[in-house]
């Protein structure tokens, strides 16, 4: 997150309660999702169908939320067979937290 627009994009992605909830779940997928038939929860991510079930939102709505999170760099999508799996991008999350902390200390 080297630029102000990148920081703003992450803040925008986190400004939605559903996306923020999904990020919380992806931070600890084993605590929030069942074991999957395909893909490891931590290595490959969580299948979008499990995220859809847990949110109670429609699949297209969840897909849109996940695209916003991916565009901000907060999640990494991986295609396995016919499904997309998402995992938290720990590096971007850590960088964002560091930059946000530095920004707040300067203000």
TrEMBL record:
The keyword Transcription regulation applies. Keywords: DNA-binding, Transcription, Transcription regulation. Residues 1-107 form the HTH arsR-type domain. SMART domains: HTH_ARSR. The keyword Cell membrane does not apply. It comes from the Bacteria. GO terms for molecular function: DNA binding; DNA-binding transcription factor activity. InterPro entries: ArsR-like_HTH, HTH_ArsR_DNA-bd_dom, HTH_MetalResp_TranReg, WH-like_DNA-bd_sf, WH_DNA-bd_sf. This is ArsR family transcriptional regulator.
